[in-house]
Fold this sequence. Notes:
The chain is of the alpha/beta class. The chain has twelve helices and 14 strands. It has two domains: 1-128 and 314-368, Rossmann fold, CATH 3.40.50; 143-312, Glutathione S-transferase Yfyf (Class Pi), Chain A, domain 2, CATH 1.20.1050.90. Strand 6 (104-113) and strand 7 form a beta hairpin.
Amino acid sequence: MYLQSLFLQNFRSYKKASFDFSQNTTLVIGPNTAGKTNLIEAIFFIASGKSFRIDKDEQLIKFEESVARIKARLQLPEQSDGGQAKLDDKDLEVVIAQGGVGGKVRPFKKYLVNDVSKKKVDFVGNFFAVLFAPSDLEIIVGSPSKRRDFIDNILIQTDREYRLAIGFYEKGLRIRNALLHKVKETGIRQDKEFAYWDNLLIIQGQKITKKREEFLDYIQKSKKDILEFEIFYDKSVISKERLLQYKDAEVGSGVTLVGPHRDDIIIRINLNENSDKFEWVDIKFFGSRGQQRLAILQLKLLELILIEQRAGVRPLLLLDDVFSELDEGHIDLVLEMIPDRQTVITTTHREFVGKNLLKNMVMIELGK
């Protein structure tokens, strides 16, 4: 399966634009602000059903417009009656619109597969992509939410049960937090109002925790050729007992204080890698910038492998402006991920890409 073409309408900086992609490597060249990352964002949206840059979908709609559209055509192999593989097309489309209700602007999304409307949970999983960008360093040095996003982006694409669980959990969390905020403001708590949402969060939260444990166990046990590290799941268990334990504190804060939305992961490296003596430390605080980048590369490689194993297809690799951020050694490690898979690379200058690679790439030039 590969991404054949992409059409954008009123998405970010694009009024209307169409792009065709190589089955192998496509190089997108353009100055800063030309729309390179916007293009990558649109491709990733088709895979995950969400942006990797913002939480508010209305920000994706071009200024002074009310509807944005992303439409992708995939080409995928299909077995013919004679057993010979032939190619078949699949269209994936996302429509993001703003609608006014009661004086408020409420964005909504519509997902379509071959022009048939689908729920998000059934739209995601039709196409797979792995993103590598300079901002991925935040997975190591940023807040716990960045590390949770890393896990979610993988499991949302590859596990329908996880998509369902996290969708129910996030809806329940929003409503429960609204109830807690009301209690904080009024000083009155009706436990009956919380009973249903407490139970929902416990059931779905435990499903999320189990899926994350399985994923992180895979990371822990996998062979690591780029950088050896240990990974630990610092989970926030949710149960009736823990919700009761934090009941008063939640009223004071106005938010739910336990559950997988509070999870974190810890990556530790051995400071004495050339010695028999092990000294494991948190890479966030004690690793060099070079070691942190190597950890990201290793995580992304394992992500590629896991998605391929689970989905049975090779995911599209998106490399957004990585050449300007990495040294030669790290660039070589990134390029080793490219062979035998579709890749889209963005860069400001073609000089960042080796001449041998340029010969085999289809180029898209922006900002001309």
